[in-house]
Model the fold of this input.
Amino acid sequence: MQDRWNAFMPYPDADVGHAPAGLLSGHRLAVKDLFDVAGYATAAGNAAVLAASGIKTATAPLVQTLLDAGASFVGKTNTDELAYSLIGGNIHFGMPVNPRDPELIPGGSSSGSAVAVAAGLADLGLGTDTSGSIRLPAAINGLVGWRPTLGSLDNGALRPLAPSFDVPGFMTSSLEPMAAVMSAVGVPATNDRPISIFIPEDILETIDGVIADEMIASLRSSALPIRRINSIASFSLADLAVAFTTILQKEAWESNKTLFEQSPDAIAPDIAARLRAGSRLDDGEVREAYRIRTLFYGEIDRLLCRNAVVALPTLAMRPPTRDADPESFAAFRTACIKLLCLSGLSGCPQLAVPIASRAGSVSLSLLAARSADRTLVNLASLLSTCVKEQMPF
Done:
């Protein structure tokens, strides 16, 4: 396969079999290089991890499930180092190229899986999402991105970053293969649709007014009741982002402490700085962050308990160019975390889908109660059917 997008890791090919028939027959599968695949190493975007990996003799259970459903493996994909970024860069293996706009970042950390699907090199991009690593690159590359309900998919033989947030998930070019993936991994089919859509005013205020208006117009096409609410919770978006980041940094340090202490020079300076920050957190800060998460968890339950869905933009601002300075990357990451952290803190599923806009293609996200993953696809399908002038999902 010719990979001019740098989507895939340059591993020698190994035979990875798959079932001759199944729900995913004819679908090509790209796997983020955090999952073990028999016959391949697992580098997690780090040269020291690669050197210590060895060739794996067993395949991650989730990957095997997809192979058993008929998906054909086409390669392991690039990732931000240790999956600890949202930009898509990697000092060891390079930054994949965004097929939709080569001047922009591809987004991360599931950068290679997103680029593989966007470039037509794969039909299913398996990735992980801790702080937005599926939803953000899906949005930037014009894809459908699914962060499942926390704990609903098998994460065996998957290198962790922050275990209480880490979720395997998928990116596809449209809703049809996403629905097939859901069936293959055991998410039951249902005709459930939300009885109402909540739009938080505090989130709308953070984005461009034209995009907000077009997002609402798209939602109104569903003919479902739309309710404007002041906010998604009693906490501000900034406070939720701080709580999320605190827990993320704490758990990321614990996951990578051994690597950091054994090979500190083998980690990129920006990633190493985030790990150090996690090692220096005060116990009181961490307890407060977990307290906020627990309270937010309950508030989301009460908000979504009657089959409602929250609609919000996937991204808080336009992605930076791939040659932007570190300050621009940091500003983008900080702005987007305020929206992306909501699913992580609550454990709720989120689906990012592209919609047409006068500002270009933008990404709408739908957030539902835990285990209501299919409701999100059903609503997105309804929107796709109702709005003929929008880009097909």
Remarks:
- The CA atoms of residues 199 and 216 lie 8 Å apart.
